[in-house]
Amino acid sequence: MQAPEKTRPPESYGGVFQSAFRIAFKNPILLLFGLLSGGGGGYSWGNRFHPGHEEMRDAIAHALVLLPLLSVLAIVGIAVAILARGSLITGTDRAGRGGRPGFRECLAGGLHAFWRQFGFTLVGLGFFLLLLIPLIPGIIHLVQHHVGIGALMLVLGGFLDLCLGTVFMLSFAYGARAVVLDGFGPLSGWRAGFRMFGDHPGRSIVLGVTFVMAWIVLGVMILIPILAMVAPLLPILLGQGTPLDFAAFVPALIVGVPILLVISAWVATFASAFWTMAYRWARPWPEPPAITETPPMPLAAPPPLPDPGYVPPPESGPAPA
Question: Has residue 117 been placed in a domain?
Fold first, then answer.
């Protein structure tokens, strides 16, 4: 039996946090969309290869040959990430309301909002490129060997970028949900995100700090067992591996990679659920229409019964001529 849908979202910081945990744990189908939305990070294992001129030319030639393929793969990856993000927002919103999100329902939500999300992301890219402007004066001074003033201007520009970046990130979290859940367009979604941040600046900052602290704690707790599992790889990466280390490489890889993927998917699902519940705190679900009972129609009164003592008057004949 499906749980009844709720219309009141969590209205406290603890409620948002607990709802996000519950959604991420109780809805494993969302982990797939969490993984595809870019929940995993990029890992560079590195090597000890130092190319010479011939090797560098060969590497550049191979890169130019593979550039079209890499471009296509990048476009496909971006499209899948945007689709999965919309699907994940749809599923976390459904789960937060007490429903049981299904694969088709989540995917339909992502497909419905795909192009609006794509435009919203492009506009956001332009906003984040603006963060380079405060750093330009400091870079110019450093290039001119004015180290003192250049470093000072970089610090001031970095602080300004931190403030503006925080506003952009929080507005992005709100605006993405306005686009997917409430049908806003790319520009109107950003306006809605900025408006929600402006209406609740203190709450938004506290939610952001809470999310970062939770992410750090989860990351530390998760890294400990992962590092223990990948410890046999460290000598190989440092170029001091033994045959025993190489023998341990494959089991560590087989065990470690799936765990990393699951953890990345769960963290992405938790993050999406966290900000979806934060969005619903500021913009609750619409109330269902009130059901009013129609009063029963009154029954027509029965015709009166004839009086048993009633004697009808005699019929009058025709008038005399």
Answer: yes
Confidence of residue 239 (pLDDT cuts 50, 70, 90): low
Q: How confident is the model at residue 204 (pLDDT cuts 50, 70, 90)?
A: very high
| Helix, strand or coil, per DSSP, at residue 320 | coil
In which band, very low, low, confident or very high, does the pLDDT at 51 lie, cut at 50, 70 and 90?
very low
The predicted structure's pLDDT at residue 74: 84
Structure tokens at 284: 């609750």
**Between the CA atoms of 203, 204, 210 and 213, what dihedral angle is there, to the nearest 10 degrees?**
-150
How far is C-alpha 180 from the chain's CA centre?
A: 10
* Residue 201 lies inside a defined structural domain of this protein: yes
The model's confidence at residue 28, banded by pLDDT at 50, 70 and 90, is confident
48 in a domain, yes or no?
A: no
**Please, which residues have CB within 8 angstroms of residue 235's CB and are 6 or more apart in sequence?**
241, 242, 245
Q: Contact 253/19 with Cβ under 8 angstroms? A: no
Q: Which domain holds residue 146?
A: 13-38+66-279
DSSP per-residue codes, 149-217? HHHHHHHHHHHHHHHHHHHHHHHHHHHHHHHHHH---HHHHHHHHHHHHHHSHHHHHHHHHHHHHHHHH
More reliable by pLDDT, 220 or 313: 220
Number of domains in the chain: 1
Q: What's the Cα-to-Cα distance from 268 to each of 87, 151, 200, 231, 300, rounded to whole Å?
A: 12, 36, 24, 26, 65
91, part of any domain: yes
Task: Confirm whether pTM is higher than 0.90.
Answer: no
Average the pLDDT over 276-298 and give the result: 73
Between the alpha carbon of residue 280 and those of residues 90, 120, 250, the distances in Å are 12, 20, 45
